[in-house]
Design goal:
By secondary structure, the chain is mostly beta strands. It has 2 helices and 12 strands, in the order βαβαββββββββββ. The longest helix has 12 residues.
């Protein structure tokens, strides 16, 4: 029997470097781990990050919680099928993909969780033109600017769907960092991508080819609030195909 079999541990700050590695080590020791997130939109990217250091990343649970607000933490009886004080619902499970989230609150477009059969995306906001529209339906991917001056704007945290339809295709995106903090930038889907991050003056800050999942690119960088940044996406060795760009923290 492993050391932590049958025991559950709550890890706050799981999106940070130390918290992430603590969660991974606890999983390897056999503990059941739940990590808290301020933004539910980060669950998928953090699960992939845990997966880079632990083979048990599919076992970690995530709960959205603002630890400065008592209302942001799931009630202790959440998931028992009984609607307790502080709960908006309780359907007897801890799924985030039905009408009642794992914090026992009514699911809604913009909460960062994709409701099965209702939403095709949920990027944590109700803004259109960022890849996921205000009704939480995927927007057509279209093409994006081929130069820095034609960069496609995106809101952060957020996502954008894109496609590289030529071997020399370049897609540029531009965003303003809303906070001074560490940002996690990555692509998903099956296209082998290269990500390059630039400051507003054109200085290259970071570049990656395949640190992400399945040859996707992934960059972690400290960015300053209210500063403009640009991203360039292109195919590795001329790779073509669709991708989804994520910029989160």
């Amino acid at each position: 029997m492993t050391a932590g079999a049958g025991q559950k541990v709550l890890v706050t700050g799981v999106s940070g470097y130390i918290g992430l590695h603590c969660a991974a080590e606890l999983l390897e020791q056999g503990y059941s781990v739940r990590g808290t997130l301020r933004s539910a939109a980060r669950e998928a990217s953090l699960r992939r990050a845990v997966g880079s250091v632990s083979a048990r990343a599919d076992e970690i649970e995530f709960a959205q919680a603002d630890l400065l607000d008592d209302a942001g933490v799931a009630p202790s009886g959440c998931g028992d099928g009984v609607v307790d004080p502080g709960e908006g619902c309780d359907d007897g499970n801890r799924s985030n993909h039905d009408q009642c989230t794992n914090a026992c609150q009514r699911a809604a477009c913009g909460d960062g969780w994709v409701r099965s059969g209702v939403e095709t995306c949920d990027d944590g906001n109700r803004t259109s033109d960022d890849g996921c529209d205000s009704a939480c339906q995927l927007e057509e991917q279209g093409d994006h600017g081929d130069t820095a001056s034609e960069a496609t704007p995106m809101f952060v945290p957020g996502q954008r769907q894109g496609a590289l339809d030529r071997r020399d295709d370049l897609d540029f995106f531009v965003f303003v960092a809303p906070q001074t903090r560490r940002y996690f930038i990555e692509t998903t889907q099956r296209t082998d991508t290269v990500c390059t991050l630039f400051a507003s003056n054109g200085t290259q800050l970071a570049m990656d080819n395949n640190r992400g999942v399945s040859n996707n690119c992934a960059i972690m960088a400290e960015l300053e609030a209210d500063q403009t940044y640009r991203l360039r996406i292109h195919g590795s060795a001329g790779s073509m195909g669709s991708y989804r760009l994520h910029v989160n923290w």
